[in-house]
């Protein structure tokens, strides 16, 4: 049997009837990965677009790369994770640490919970404080800090300037990232610690 026929039997894409059928074996056969650029490159030509050695993926409207394989669209950063680590659950969220959606260098990717991923988003376009989780309360004439985790909103305090409010938000964020399941209790501990420092 010719060598290319044997390869087609092992790495035939026709069994990929569902998105979940794609495995690390398929991904590593289809792509090479450059850790310096974070990009996948085609090793096999499976369409007119997918030329050997060309960069895989096209940008969507949100700045993420997506790749078409066997009629299914995959996020480029999820394919990178699968290529590098060998497994990835469908429910797992692959987060960009630096919040840059096309920076798919492996050191910039991590598995995160939905709450952790939501904490790692870019500033909203209507943010006027310049800091995440900080807004100006006109009635009080003060800056306020708040955080949302797992659908629950927690007010973190009222401050004279936005930098103080931002510091409180960052403290709460670090707790939330490391202690999702006991977040509200952890923030209460933060409240008590801040109160204790203010009395010293």
Tally the helices: what do you get?
6
The number of E-state strands comes to 10
Percent strand: 15-25%
Calculate the mean pLDDT score and round it. Answer: 77
What structural category do the secondary elements indicate?
Answer: alpha+beta
Shape: elongated
CATH architecture of the largest domain: Alpha-Beta Complex
Helix content: 25-40%
How many strands, which pairing sense, and closed or not: the largest β-sheet?
3 strands, antiparallel
Across the major sheet, the strand order is 3-4-5
Structural domain tally: 2
| CATH topology-level name of the largest domain | Homing Intron 3 (I-Ppo) Encoded Endonuclease, Chain A
N-to-C order of helices and strands: HHEEEEEHEEHEEEHH
Poorly predicted residue ranges: 1-11, 181-188
Can you walk through the features of this model?
- The protein has 200 residues and is α+β, with helices and mostly antiparallel strands.
- It folds into two domains: 3-112, Homing Intron 3 (I-Ppo) Encoded Endonuclease, Chain A (Alpha-Beta Complex), CATH 3.90.75; 117-199, GCC-box Binding Domain (2-Layer Sandwich), CATH 3.30.730.10.
- Helices cover 33% and strands 24% of the residues.
- It is elongated, with a radius of gyration of 23 Å.
- The chain is built from six helices and ten strands, in the order ααβββββαββαβββαα.
- Helix 2 (24-30) crosses helix 3 and helix 5 packs across helix 6 (183-199).
- The protein has helices at residues 3-11, 24-30, 76-85, 114-119, 162-178, 183-199, and strands at residues 31-34, 39-42, 58-59, 65-69, 72-75, 93-96, 109-112, 134-137, 142-149, 152-159.
- The longest helix is centred in the last third of the chain and has 17 residues, at 162-178.
